[in-house]
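Notes, Module 5: Reading structure tokens.

Key idea: the token line is not a picture. It is a compressed description, and you learn to read it the same way you learned to read a sequence, by spotting repeated patterns. We will look at two proteins. The first is printed below with its tokens.
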Amino acid sequence: MASEPDPVFLITGASTGIGAATARHAAEAGYRLVLSARSEDKLQALAEELGGERRAVAVACDVTEWADQQALVERALGAFGRVDVAFANAGFGGPRGFDQGEVEEWKAMVLTNVYGAALTIRATMEPLKASKGHLLLTGSVAGRRALKGSLYSATKWAVTAMGEAARQDFNDTGVRVTLIEPGMVDTPFFDSPPEIEALKADDVARAVLFAVQQPPHVDVNEILVRPTDQPN
């Protein structure tokens, strides 16, 4: 009898930080990978590192474009025939203060962090139902406590709500939903290194894999993880 093919793990925002670390941990756990980001050069290098076309495919994708999201899922199905895990991880932040930053950057942040995550849910919904798979979203501690002057915080509050809304929408389908809520992480997200000993991207990736590797009847809905030194 032929063995079941290795499961497929799709990640948006996969070229650096939490996305890239999760890709490496997922590869070690035996997943085939569909990696997406706007930065195609870094993405392709990561895919080659993790096994090339047979084990990891790189797909340039702007998560704010519905056609790109559809093409991403079509590429996953074309390459591997299934999607078992979809990680809506793409996102970015900006300076605090409603008088700070460029308004066009605000627009891009809201579209990426909120609309982009919602499009990933929509694009992967049917393949996840078919595999009784797992949806994950990158939230934030900032999506649990409002940060002064932070539109980014507001976008992550939206993602917190989206995680619970998606859980209810997937109920009775066998699909699990997990919201990953990191505190301060030392990644390219920040312009300068954090002043405290922050989380590493690998710390968050381990939390992702913990949720994914539970038995099918166990749905870890939220993981909020802070560095020990983070005061709030």
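Here is the second protein, with the sequence above and the tokens below, as before.
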Amino acid sequence: MTGLPNKSDTALKEWAVTVDALGRGDQIIILRKGGIHKEDKEFRIIHPEFLLFSTYEHQKNELLKPSYHKRLKEIEETKDASEFVEFIYWASVTDKFEIRDESDLEKISERHLWTEAYAVSRFHWRPSQPLTIALVKVFRLEEPIIIESIPQFAGCKSWIDLQPTINLPDMKPVLNDMDYDNEVSIIRESLADSLVSLK
């Protein structure tokens, strides 16, 4: 990917353990059906690029595959209780699509850290809405960005408006182009029969 930005005004809130998995290259999937805020109940990938905002609310062992339980414990133990937010990763959406068939979840179950039961529960929450899946190429910032936390960051919302705009340092991709493209191909091929791409 060329032409990386030097500024960002948007962040996406995601479980800290998921941000960690994205940052390690363990997965490239973000799976969403919205937050619980009224303004956020119909989640849409309205921003193609964003910083990843780690949140510690709602993440639990029973929602994660056993192989991630130890990592969740480590993350919870090192959680910073200060009044600051640290950004380590920036992400760019390369593919986004929706699925409307529960059976599709099994096809990609090996590509993420959530239990099958949790993924299915997200699928059935607000059943009239399709499940949104985004594939993101993640970049690690060469220097973390630390900003003061403000009340507007709180709550179960997906998108965070960052004002003033944040200057981004140099960054490097977590996965090289070949490895990332291979992972994208596996996911797209797994869902080829029912894939609905979104623009």
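Summary for the second protein:
- The CA atoms of residues 10 and 161 lie 5 Å apart.
- Strands lie at 7-15, 29-32, 49-55, 84-99, 131-148, 159-167, 171-173, 196-197.
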